[in-house]
Amino acid sequence: MAARRAAAGALVVLAAVAALRSDPHGDQTDIVVAARDLSPGIELTTEDVRLEKRSTATVPDGSQSTVDKVVGSTLAGPARRGEALTDVRLLGPRLARSAAGPDARIVPLHLADTALLDLVRPGDVVDVLAAADDDTEPRVVATEAVVVLVSEKQKGAGAGGERVLLVALPAHAANDVAGATLMQTVTLTFH
Fold it and tell me: Of 180, 189, 191, 167, which Cα lies nearest the Cα of 96?
């Protein structure tokens, strides 16, 4: 008889715990994820992304909740199928801020030696050097630039197109680099 009472008491306690526990399916939210493996530098379309339910506790900061917020944006780095597309995965002010500080800007670079584009990756830290065509000494125009995008090689017949590198820098350095690239040859040194 005592064993029955103990078992009944245990069942009452288990029922109370089950009633107080949150619904495991109730703490979920929709987030935008990559629908397939994606290359950096592409403009996202509705075929590239989808909504997926995830546990609210596992959703990364900066996740997007509607497809409309990411369609038309440019992907800053490669993304795997199912990867959450957060605000810092897309080109824009939040990516610049997260890479180089609150007043950061993103600057495009056309490098003199395009072979460097095959070596540099998003997240790399580089210094930017510029030299005029009149045989003057190269000068460092910015240090600790953070690479945020390297455009991919064009594939197929007729592929040409100039590749570009995007770096994030504080505003004053970004303006110096942008000005230097207008009339000087630009290259990088890696940290």
Answer: 167
